[in-house]
Amino acid sequence: MPITVLHSEPVASRRVIVVGGGLAGIAAAAALDDAGVSVTLLESRRELGGRASSFLDASTGELLDNCQHVLLGCCTNLLDLYRRLGVSEKIGWHRTVHYLDADGREYNLWAVNGLPSPFHLGFSMALFSALSPVDRMAMARAMFAIMRMGRSGREKLEGVAFGQWLKELRQSDRLIQRFYDPVLISALNEETRRVSCKYAVQVFQDAMLANRRGYVVGLPDCPLEQLYANRPCADVRLNTRVDEILFSGHRASGVKLATGEALAADAVVLATNHHAVMRWIPEHLRAIDYRFAGLVNLESVPILGVHLWFDRPVLKKSHAALFEGPLQWLFRKDAQGRVLHGVISAARSWSATPHAQAVEEFQTQLNRLFSRSGAKLVRSRIVVEKRATFSPLPGSDAWRPPAAPPDGGIADLFLAGDYTRTDWPATMEGAVRSGYLAAEGVLRAMAPGGAAPKFLVPDMPPEWPARLLAR
């Protein structure tokens, strides 16, 4: 990757401004702070976390999450960030994945203790009665093909739609609905058949087929806001809006705040969504830096989250993937199971639906799911994130920019965000990786020719059966 030379002063004397306090910005700030750089983190909201944070419900005073966020054991960099922030103990781990059909019947996927991947899930998959024996055999063939292709094989399929691949392997519609959809729509925020085969394959390779710890589900035991109570650097400024990125020629030199105050910097990391990035970079500077050329081609996809309060307990388990919608996942938000959070990913058809109409449809689904409980829905609150992620469609990698500027590009301007070139889809893990990659780029530019720290944590190593079975 090209290196932009900043200056020759010691790293500790440099100032880096990180704009955006989501996971990408938090990761970049934490990594740079650990390396001894003077970091200022600017966030326009009253709290850190971005899309993965909480808000205060004005009508009740309750702290509610924007949307339920889930991590898996294979999210090595997200787990590393939680370690840096000292909040690892706030994540509860669940070794069984729970599913419910439309009538509330439960099916589970679980691992056999002591068995290495991919055999650890084999027994429960063989007994997964939500699928017919024929579909289970078809699914096993597909998983074997996914494991055999390895990383190099999935890279070759980046421009292929996963639906085409599923059709070639004769995966039935019912199998797609009951196995692939619950996993991929939530993981990639896109319809299963539309996503790039590369990223669909990556989900199964990393989460289910490489390492026995990869599939384990992690859910925060607290409101998301509390995960960022420990600041990633000393100078964190909340409720601080950036109006303008300042440039000196073809170099980023600082930012101008909404208050009119100008802050100088040796480097600027833009850790916001790509829509904000495009607004901040003047057209004449975008023209000299290829990182901005393809951003208009990235399609944004919404996510809907709904908070649900019942008059009695309805969900005993921590979570449930639903075979039939409209809600795709449910998460228990209290000890009793009276308060739930429902999620619809790839929620294009719901972003403009009146909330009263949406709740009515959700209630019909929930009444059938929990008919035996006799519970009544007493209150609800819908949150729609209209630009939640970009869509990992076939060919989308071509539009994703690297963190560091190219030769002749905008010097000292670095990009972080799940839309950047992380080799991961738009997930919390992808966002953290982007922040670490931006921090690595800044430090390489500060010490050209020297040994710059590496922050990116490697993927979980494949266990011996997975290594032997892969090409």
Q: Topology, please?
A:
Elements: E1 15-19, H1 23-34, E2 38-42, E3 54-56, E4 63-65, E5 71-72, H2 76-85, E6 91-94, E7 96-100, E8 106-110, H3 122-126, H4 133-155, H5 162-168, H6 173-188, H7 197-209, E9 217-220, E10 235-237, E11 242-248, E12 251-257, E13 262-264, E14 267-270, H8 274-280, H9 283-286, E15 300-310, E16 319-322, E17 329-332, E18 339-344, H10 355-369, E19 377-390, E20 413-415, H11 428-446, H12 464-469
Parallel strand pairs: 1-2, 1-14, 2-10, 7-16, 14-20
Antiparallel strand pairs: 3-4, 5-9, 6-9, 7-8, 11-12, 12-13, 15-18, 15-19, 16-17, 17-18
Helix pairs in contact: 1-11, 2-11, 4-7
How would you concisely characterize the structure shown here?
With 471 residues, this protein is of the alpha/beta class. It has helices spanning 23-34, 76-85, 122-126, 133-155, 162-168, 173-188, 197-209, 274-280, 283-286, 355-369, 428-446, 464-469; strands at residues 15-19, 38-42, 54-56, 63-65, 71-72, 91-94, 96-100, 106-110, 217-220, 235-237, 242-248, 251-257, 262-264, 267-270, 300-310, 319-322, 329-332, 339-344, 377-390, 413-415. The model is unreliable at 1-8 (pLDDT under 50).
Features:
single chain; Alpha-Beta Plaits; 471 residues; alpha/beta; 20 strands; 12 helices; FAD/NAD(P)-binding domain; five-stranded parallel sheet; 3 domains; 22% strand; globular; seven-stranded mixed sheet
